[in-house]
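Figure 2 data, in text form.
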Amino acid sequence: MIEKVKQVLSVKVKLILDEEKKRELLRLCKAYKDAMNFVFANSFEKGKKDFRTLHKAYYRILRERFSLPSQYAVNISRKTATIYASKNKWEKPPKRKSLSVDLTFNRTFSIKPDKRVVSITTMNGRLKNIPYLGWEKHYEYLQRGRIGDAVLVYDKANKEFFLHIPVEIEVEKQTPQEVIGIDVGEVNTVALVSSKGNKEIVPRTEEYKRLKEKYQRLRQALQSKGTRSAKRKLKKVVGREKRFVESFMHYVSKYLVSKYPQALFVMEDLTGIRERRKVKRKNTEEIRQSNQWAFRSFQTKLYYKSILYNGISPIFVDPSYTSQMCPVCGYTSKENRKSQSDFECKNCGYKEHADIVGATNIMVRGLVEVQNFYQGLFVNQPNALPYGMEQAPTSLSGSS
């Protein structure tokens, strides 16, 4: 029997609507937002905030006061309870700001992937056979995958509606032939070390650095103005910068899964790293780069691409002291790091690029994690390739 591994993807499609249908969906979004904020405001000072309690207290009110169809009233109580449960303590009532609606598959929305149309329940009946546009790859996922509950989102800036649809894809599980430790860097995007002895550093390209500096200057200029129009423009600039970084991370992650199709990638568990990370306060540029470092974005993309394209699920390991520990003798000290890029062990004298050291320690921890499952598959080869930027991508061109 062939073993399968599952991966959930978020497919985004644009709805093709006339003005009348746009007004109908916008009316639904506004009512949904107002209804959820009503529940937040009225339930905050009260006792239990679980789904059953909220549903019993507000279902009838939401149906009558906000004219919402039955399933939307149910979804609001469920979503509200989930948001309350996401934090131990709320200082003030949560507030929904976005114009979006939680849709239930085969209840408030349905889809015909073969015809590329969807139907959505509104406050005034059902809008049927709405055409949608997306990427060709996304059309394929919708055809072959298991579709879940979607989210209808209104893009206020462009006055367009989008559907975010989760799709569960099954891929044939593969047995990895090597373990690769991945160290996400501050200056370089990633460094990697393989159990077969290969080493590589993927730098941030000159184009990446240039555009990041450009967006930083734009943000500083707009923030200093402080006018209403400057704030609107700032929001657009931040959005463009985020999309640019996301695109670069897509490219790098696809580069890695394409180059190492039989690898089990091992990454640091970066939970809470923004709080743990320390930077030198005297250098504001260092602080800015540390705060904006796309820790999670790259890992998320590498994780799902490795499953989707290669059938291998990456794993995460404890990152403690991976940048300070000598991979040769095990001596651990802050003094081993001479600079951001230089590592020299104070005990045995071993020298290497600091990012490569981090990736090596991550790889070894990954080997320990999986040795019971894949005994004998990973052979450490002594003739390791020297790390070198000539092995890395040098531009942002390429599909994601």
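Caption note: The CA atoms of residues 268 and 317 lie 5 Å apart.
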